[in-house]
Design brief:
Length: about 240
């Protein structure tokens, strides 16, 4: 049974996060994962991964002509070993420990996004990011920051579409492995189904305005929210 007092804040966050992800290419997991970690940690990472499948399919198809297919292939190649490491982390950690990992990953990702130098992604960097993304997304549901860091200085359509394409492949890998080892529950899937309506609303809204919004300011707002949320998760909740 889904409690309305929990559903409403998570649904609002899901709609806002879908809008942000569709507009600038990152932000969904950074917004939703910390809130889920605080309110319903048992949903991570499966509910988040399931929700991101239609969201990233939508973004990838919308700007498919701008996808960096070579970079996507290298990133996906690094994804499998990273996914296995992420699964190991998920198995050995308690809920409190997982929250600490989500918080730390979020804070580190924000700091990296703010202070990393400009560079063009190459094969080695793409494979490395694939490994890191596999670890963090399988363990916590947060995988976007390393990809965003890799492509943050590329044109907007390339960033959005390539990240979405990489997410699709990676999320399918992560969910398949989580299913094989029995880490997917009915409750996680019911929550994902219940959150589809706000996800669709946010996605459609982003399609209307994504060419006209101030992406720099929106990105800064997302990073600030993620930083605060990540810090809150680092506080023990016994």
């Amino acid at each position: 049974m889904i409690e309305l007092s929990l559903y409403i804040p998570v649904a609002i966050a899901t709609g806002i996060a879908a809008f942000v992800q569709g507009a600038i290419g990152i932000g969904f997991a950074l917004i939703v994962a910390p809130l889920m970690g605080l309110l319903i940690p048992g949903l991570l990472p499966v509910t988040l991964l399931v929700l991101m499948l239609p969201l990233n399919l939508f973004v990838a198809l919308r700007e498919r002509s701008a996808i960096d297919w070579r970079g996507s292939a290298w990133i996906t190649a690094g994804r499998l070993p990273g996914t296995l490491l992420g699964l190991w982390i998920l198995v050995i950690l308690s809920v409190e420990g997982l929250n600490q990992v989500v918080g730390a990953s979020t804070v580190l990702a924000v700091l990296a996004a703010l202070f990393a130098p400009v560079f063009r992604p190459g094969g080695t960097a793409c494979v490395s990011v694939g490994v890191i993304t596999g670890i963090t997304e399988t363990a916590t549901g947060v995988g976007g920051p390393p990809l965003a860091l890799l492509y943050q200085h590329r044109p907007g359509p390339e960033l959005r579409s390539t990240i979405a394409c990489c997410f699709l492949a990676g999320e399918l890998i992560s969910l398949a492995i989580l299913a094989v080892v029995g880490r997917i529950s009915a409750e996680q899937l019911w929550w994902a189904l219940a959150l589809i309506p706000p996800l669709l609303v946010g996605s459609v809204a982003s399609r209307v305005v994504h060419q006209r919004i101030d992406a720099r300011r929106l990105r800064q707002g997302v990073l600030l929210f993620a930083l605060v949320s990540g810090l809150l998760l680092l506080i023990p909740h016994y």
